[in-house]
Specification:
The complex is a heterodimer of chains A (161) and B (128). Helices cover 36% and strands 27% of the residues of chain A. With 161 residues, chain A is an alpha+beta fold. Chain A has one domain: 3-Layer(aba) Sandwich (Chemotaxis protein chec). In chain A, strands 1, 2, 3, 4, 5, 6 and 7 form a seven-stranded antiparallel sheet that branches. The radius of gyration of chain A is 15 Å and the shape is globular. Chain B has one domain: 3-Layer(aba) Sandwich (Rossmann fold). Helix content of chain B is 43%, strand content 20%. Chain B is globular, with a radius of gyration of 13 Å. The chains are: A alpha+beta (161), B alpha/beta (128).
């Protein structure tokens, strides 16, 4: 069984996975939410109040996180369900977790041969912005920021060897 | 096509609603939709009712989709009912595993209503 480092070598360094990550994100938003993600180039994506996380275990270990403000989270639920934001409110956590789950799955399926060798956890969603995130990731972090319907969102993959 | 009843098994309530919407968008006339949040709940639903179609996730707490498929084989009311997996687990081994324990179709998330139609309609036509 190859290690994560060997896989990383086979697919290039984790930084070279960025285009696959970006594609995985864009596909999920286009297909499941009917929205295009736009580039976001500013440094500060605001103060995210929702954090969804999905763990990856196996030959690729790490955690994928999706961070956004409450209005983005509610809008994601609204777009996924095809209802207005008020009606989607109770589904916000679930929707955000599922978006994160689909991005993680879509990404690992794009890494050749990784689908069989990497398992996903069920999603976890945290609300609130006053927390510190400590990851054991030691092989780098892929981070992308997008504009979703005019509001920034951040998606990152912390990779652990 | 006649009205059909479906069981949707997924731990995400949002995903269950999306799957139901996709079935309707695919032109499937649903008489009833039953929902379950894991495989064990799904088996419980099938004790009380018959359905014409089952759509099931794989990664779920309590009982995952593969174990659900295994135990489904012993449920008399589910005999001959097509099961389509809808999941983020898109690897070849997951597909083979699911098909080997009774799944008749496999759709990877993210998915379109068109993909649901392509996988589900032939199964319902064949069941008639």
């Amino acid at each position: 069984m190859k290690s994560a480092n060997e896989i990383a070598a086979g697919h290039g360094a984790p930084e070279s996975w960025l285009p696959l990550m970006e594609l995985a994100c864009r596909e999920v938003f286009e297909i499941m939410l009917g929205c295009n993600l736009e580039p976001f180039n500013a440094q500060d994506p605001g103060n995210p109040e929702f954090t969804a996380m999905v763990g990856l275990a196996g030959q690729l270990c790490g955690v994928l996180t999706l961070r956004c403000m409450s209005q983005s989270a509610a809008l994601m639920a609204s777009k996924m369900l095809g209802v207005d934001i008020q009606q989607a409110d109770e589904h916000t956590w679930d929707a955000l977790g599922e978006v994160c789950n689909m991005i993680a799955g879509n990404f690992k399926n794009k890494l050749t041969g990784m689908g069989d060798r990497c398992m996903l956890s069920v999603p976890t969603v945290i609300t609130g912005a006053d927390y510190s995130f400590h990851s054991l990731a030691d092989a780098g972090t892929l981070e992308m920021k997008f504009m979703f319907e005019g509001v920034p969102i951040a998606i990152s993959l912390e990779v652990h060897t | 096509m006649n009205k059909i009843s479906a069981l949707i098994v997924d731990d995400s309530s949002v995903m269950r609603k999306i799957v139901e919407r996709s079935l309707r968008q695919a032109g499937i006339d649903l008489s009833e939709v039953r929902e379950a949040s894991n495989g064990a709940e799904g088996l419980g639903v099938l004790k009380d009712c018959n359905v014409d179609l089952i759509l099931c996730d794989i990664n779920m707490p309590v009982m995952d989709g593969i174990e659900f498929l295994r135990q489904l084989q012993a449920v008399p009311t589910a005999k001959g009912v097509p099961v389509v997996m809808i999941t983020t687990e898109g690897s070849e081994s997951h597909v083979v595993q699911a098909l080997s324990v009774g799944a008749r179709g496999y759709i990877r998330k993210p998915f379109t209503a068109e993909q649901v139609k392509e996988h589900v309609i032939p199964l319902l036509e064949a069941k008639k």
